[in-house]
User: Fold these one by one.
Assistant:
Number 1:
Amino acid sequence: MGRRILSLLLALTAGMGLAACGQTQSPAEGQETAAPEAQNSALLIAYAPETEGDPVAQAATLLAETLGGDVVEMGQEGDLTPSDYEFVLLGFAAADNALPTAVEPFLDTYDFGARTLYPFVLGTGNDEASLLAALSQHQPGALLGEPALLFTPETEEAAITQWAQSLPLRDGGPAPEGGTGNTVATAQVTPHAQQVLYLWEEGNAPAVTEYTVNNGSYSDDPDFRPYLTTFPVPEGTAVKGAVLICPGGAFQFRSDQPEGVAVAQALSARGYQSFVVDYRLRPYTQQEGALDLARAVRFVRAHAEDYGIDPADIAVMGFSAGGILSGEMLLHFDGTVNGTALDPDYVPDALDQVSADGAACGMIYAFYGRLSVGTTDVDLLRSGSLPPTFYCYGTRDPFYRQFLANADAAEAAGVSVERLQLDGMPHGFGAQGDWIPTYDQWLTTVFSQTS
């Protein structure tokens, strides 16, 4: 019979304190501590204990032993740098979804924008949706992770461990296989089976950034190669077109699961051949990442017949920074603009002769512009000959007014704009919010006009 949480004889280790440095807008060195077999420097476990050694503190220690990461007690955190982390597990006791007094000042002090929050909550009368809504009141820029862990003093240790192991931390799916034939230029396409393919031939990715050593500041190591993952339309479902999806993450990381995989699965079920693009992050530039997306579009268009789509019916979309990346590509790197526009040493290939145009753009809590700054330059937007654009955003998003202003500027530039406002919704809702059916209807209409 499993041990119960009150019987856990776990002590918080002194070595789990935080050593923080850097600024919120720049990634800083993550701290690896705790579990020797499950280290995760991108994970912060912050908890508010009721009493010393109580179930919340014991759960925090168990989670650290299972997942690794840094553990900090709220109110005793010292110097904390949110930019060190990609995921934050928040532990506290609550009744009827009311946040305890220690949690609110912690959330109001630190900005966890673009980070994914997973609560683990002790008590009764709580439900996941209400707790996430309460947290988002203080962190409207954060992604809300599901599932939450709701537990009691009688919850077995195994159940907490199982929850921890189920969390999609850094789960972007499988990487491309080694060997030959694993790139978009060399692979044999299997339209009914998932594939994971590198976007560039090894040693020939257009770049202006020299990145050779990761001192802990970056999510990807220097040997990272951008790739795409296919999510085929299920057999028996009519194919409507293709969508390329760029997860967000402030160009520091990619929120592949909530803003990539979950969305691709939902769209493929509705008839869209879907592709998640794992583009280059910092220290690479927005422009280098945009070329990754353009390469992915060229691949899909080159194999339109294989995927059963009209080559004109290809859309790009992105979440937060992923939407900004999509806009950068459509403004500057679509058509037959290839990597030599950025890197004169890049050697073009046959795929570069295929257009990277997109028939539509999905800006999901995103805008045309750069990180945190939506453009209102009508002339710039007009110069891009931008396709119809779907804006979807929540009224409690910190960038709400920028979404409105950017959409207004796009309309003034002659872009066909569709807006879906989700009242009361914060930033980072991913596939939640029931916006996908509306996006599906809009995209079906757009594709009908391109044929």
Number 2:
Amino acid sequence: MEIEQTVSAPETKTGRLIGTVLRAQSGFFWVLTEQGLLECRLRGRLKKERQATDLVVIGDQVEVVLVGYGQGAIEAVLPRRSQLARRAAGSRGAYKEDVIVANVDQVLLVFACAKPEFTPRMLDRYLVICEHSELPAIIVATKIDLVGREVAESLFRPYEQIGYPVVYTSIISGEGIADLRDRLIGKISVVTGKSGVGKSSLLNAIQPGLNLRTGEVSERLTKGRHTTTVAELIPLTMPGGGYVADTPGIREIGLWKLPARDLAWCFREFRPFLRDCYFAGCTHLHEPDCAVRAAVERGEITPERYDSYVRLMNSDEEG
């Protein structure tokens, strides 16, 4: 498969290119540059300089020097303007940052209205991760034809009321597909959601044959060397371009429990009340004169969202 999309950054220094990392696995990085797709390794110096965080991940903009036909060496990693990350176990019981995708523009959270049943607490968990990463989240409601538009809106209205955009879609009727396609143009988008919600069908409706193209890109990038599932960016070929991130780590990101002190801020409707609690460091669970719980009683925060907060504070289990 020929990848027609080019990176926006120009060539830099003599003999060096700026490219986008499309795939990373086992010390190999496949970088899309103005001279095509290059299989790259890291320079030894760079490995020593960047041990505090993930060396290179998909979405990174990197500076590459050619070392052979179709091969390059990564000399530098440009600063990341955003990233989707989680906490991962490190050595000696410590924790380290696990960056999944760099330079992300938005996260599309795909949830079905039915088959499988809509699970608000799982959506709340994903939204918490997006808020903590300071990434815009777009909720995509699929299979609205199974329940009707009115019922679909009743399911997701609480999220619209606190400011999250919701795109209502149906593969059967085509509703919402054009709107969603427009939101992907020119952006690096992470698309996630549990199995069965219709992510693949949705992406194929946006760009027909995307699954086939994904397979072709994977075959081109692996060249028969690797067989395991890894993270990669899939270029979109529609006018204006863009990328969709496909990574197994995204499916697991909901398992990351944030530090308790950060959790309340990640519920955006809690924020106006966080400084009004009587006790500094209020957990909003049992303390007297809690402004958050008072807002719940007044109906300014929904009981369902508050219940999600309580469950996340008290348990590592998925909702």
Number 3:
Amino acid sequence: MRNAILTAALAAGLAACTAMPELAPIPGSITYNGQPATKLTKAPVGSVLRHRLNDEYGQPSEETYVIQPDRSLRLVRRERVFDGP
């Protein structure tokens, strides 16, 4: 009985989760003008690729991409990079 209640509560909690919106590429992103012309054929599907650039505000940032089964790149995160003390 306790497991059934816990399972129902967990299922309700997961159903309430909303999907994260897709990040839009910005100028300087690898996928800004669409997918790159060359495919990453040697990297395994699910591999992570990082790319440093200046964001739309001129701040140093790092983007994280994941290689998809069709060998395309999906932008999953962008965060500012803070260098210095």
Number 4:
Amino acid sequence: MTDQVRTQRHVLVLNHYAKPLSEPGGTRHVELFGRLDGWDYTIVAGDRDVYSRQRFRNREPHFVRVRVPGYTRNNHRRVLNWLGYAAGALVASLARRRPALVYASSPHILTPVSGWLAARLWRVPFVLEIRDLWPESMVSTGHLREGSPVHRALRALETWLYRRADRIVIVAAGWRSYLRSLGVDERKLTWVSNGADPAAFALRHDRYRPLRDRIPVHGRLIAFAGAHGEANGLDELLDAAAELTEHTFALIGDGIDKARLVARARAEGLANVHFLDMLPKTELAGVLGGADIGVHVLADAAVFRLGASPNKLYDYLAAGVPVVTNCPGEPHEIVNESDSGAAVEPGKLVVGLRELVDLDDGTLRAMGERGRLHIEKHRSRAVMAARLQAALDELVPPRDAGGPADTEASSDTRRIAY
């Protein structure tokens, strides 16, 4: 056994919606944990895509997939999907080798509950990652009534988890004030933003068909790449497309609201709007830079004003594409600080798009380059992995090469504390 193997610490990552780079969707954890020094990792994910609802059957390194029920709408079947993942993830966590710590990520709050249970049973530290403020986001989007019995129960569970986590990782710096209001010790908090690596977003015409070859393009090519859900506010983007008919809009992705959006565009005769299927992260990175403008749009919900860390914004900027965002807070700050696009208020997306579509090619390229440099310096996966590395190393310091091994061969590999 080599010294390198002996000193590897193992982290068990619970994320219902995690994806490898070979699939469309959220690749945050494989990109972050794959960059850590002295750690290896296993990601426990659900076996259905959250957007297309299709079941995954392929095997991927570092991934364990648990079977979850399907659903098509935001109803009781979606709750069963969450419960199915939480139960399956706990079983899978206890069937793996002994971790050095357990790292459980929202959005839904049942994943951290399973993570806490697994950490308790293994007697290891528990790291809670917050990627969405539950139940605050459910209230803001109208899916939960504030003050209802369910809301009070979820708020109590949220606070309970915050108090029991050894470390809390947040993706949006603006959430610190919200967590302080719930009595969370700020010393527990570590900010690890979402991000992107510009080096991964070089155009790859040698491997992937260019975006402009996939749809007919006239005027500027305006791209949206991401989830098509109620919270994404894509009706505002279709409103803009209806006014800017001389330009082309490409909406890449999937989600519960996509069928309705497609039907609306068809009913209104929006011939300049094209809906494309989800793309694996590697392919999206290789074609996204072919757009003239990227759109980051969200519904006008109070929870987004508390803070947001949108992957799609970082992807556009990493690809050198100038951006229009309608999300106040961090997205506005990033675009304004880097002078890489237009930051507008909710409901004013078309105003920002009009500002950019009339700029000349050279000005747009310069905006995109400023955005790319900003992401490389402040929001790259490498920069954020270094922040995560420091937090995890503080909880579980690196072992000396001569110390006890943390491998499946260890004598306490299967020792579970009840």
